[in-house]
Amino acid sequence: MSRAESRPDRLVDLRRAGPGGVTAAGDGLSLGAMCTYAELWASPDVTRSAPLLRTMAEGITGGWACAARRPSAGRRCPPGR
What we know:
single chain, alpha+beta, 4 helices, 2 strands
């Protein structure tokens, strides 16, 4: 959409449509349907239980820049980072 390849009549924002977040569940993790990469990156449960998932989320969200306190343009750091 940012490249103007599509011009929909209506656009629906799903950010508040359902549960997000990450919680520890038994011997694994429970990811809400609207869980974001930033939430994965910021979650201590993901860091502890699924470090590879955290590494993946870090690459997508620009976590490396957040850790260095230099968020790159267009990227948002998770709260507390």
